[in-house]
Amino acid sequence: MSVVALVPAAGRGVRLGLGMPKALVPVNGESLLLRAVRGLLAAGCVQHVVVAAPPDQVELVAAELAELPAAHVVPGGSERTDSVRLALDVVEQVAPEARVVLVHDAARAFTPASVIQDVVRAVEQGAPAVIPVLPVSDTIKRVDEAGDVVSTVDRAELRAVQTPQGFAIDVLREAYAAAGDIATDDAGLVERIGGKVHTVAGHPNALKITTAFDLAIAESVLAAGAPQSTGELA
Ligand SMILES: Nc1ccn([C@@H]2O[C@H](COP(=O)(O)OP(=O)(O)OP(=O)(O)O)[C@@H](O)[C@H]2O)c(=O)n1
Ligand SMILES: C[C@](O)(CO)[C@H](O)COP(=O)(O)O
Which residue did the predictor score with more confidence, 232 or 162? Predict the structure, then answer.
């Protein structure tokens, strides 16, 4: 079954604070975006990639990915949901035969191949939507507007959600067609149309590089000698 991956990479990286789009930030000489796209293709189950770039940097992003002919670049939008929608819109031209679609943050550049493969396999086996998740390790409290604790949430049933998220392509198209508002992840839009979302095990290396601390973690693990060619930390 042909698989296309959409890579939202149009964010500004405000929380990272380097004054440049986060996707273009280098880690040991290679950008997060190049690592993320190469990692998707190296997993061996993704044939096409559509990257949503900052609208004013489409050519720069295309040049960054010139070594990967399977990657296509389109202008992204003002929210992540807009960027994914714009990438999804060109799948019919780029990969008309695709029946499985992944959505994968450029910021999760060190996702192991095994996670990508597990998500694709679960969709190919019939799940309409699949997300990689991790258990929550902190105690979680619900607080009110004054900052006072209302209750302690039972974390046994909570999961932190990663990407790539995988979908039967018709399901993601239906979810985006119905989407009335932005969502923090794509599976959330499938939930809104009543679709079932299955989980597989995520991985700590699939962390989203959001802050300078996250970047320092990635740099230090790579500096310790982890392989770089597939984009994996370890
Ligand atoms: N308008 C947007 C916003 C985000 N993204 C992408 O969505 C992923 C997850 O977003 P996030 O980590 O929040 O990235 P930024 O928006 O760049 O971060 P910040 O909120 O700190 O600016 C990233 O790969 C980012 O490039 C996107 O394609 N289009
Ligand atoms: C899609 C996501 O990575 C799943 O955890 C996350 O929701 C993106 O959130 P952000 O606020 O756009 O970084």
Answer: 162
Q: Which two tokens stand for residue 216?
A: 């320092």
Of all ligands present, the nearest one to the C-alpha of 160 is 2
* Largest separation between any pair of C-alpha atoms in the chain: 53
Ligand 2 pocket check for 185: Cβ under 6 Å: yes
- Mean pLDDT to the nearest integer, 148-172: 97
Query: Ligand 1 centroid to 106 CA: how many Å?
Result: 8
Average pLDDT, the chain: 94
Please tell me what DSSP assigns to residue 188.
H
Return the CATH architecture of domain 3-125+164-194+204-223. Alpha-Beta Complex (3.90)
Q: What residue type is assigned to position 175 of the chain?
A: A
The pairing of strands 198-201 and 129-135 is parallel
Q: Which ligand is nearest to the CA of 8?
A: 1
**Omega before 164 cis (within 30°)?**
yes
Question: How far away, in angstroms, is 184 Cα from ligand 2 center?
Answer: 5
191-216 mean pLDDT: 96
Which structure tokens are listed for 88?
Answer: 């999804």
Its pTM stands at 0.95
Q: Where are the domains of the chain?
A: 3-125+164-194+204-223
Q: Which amino acid is at 20?
A: M
**Does residue 184's CB lie within 6 angstroms of at least one atom of ligand 2?**
yes
pLDDT tens by residue, 30-76: 999 999 999 999 999 999 999 999 999 999 999 999 999 999 999 99
Would you call 184 helix, strand, or coil by DSSP? Answer: coil
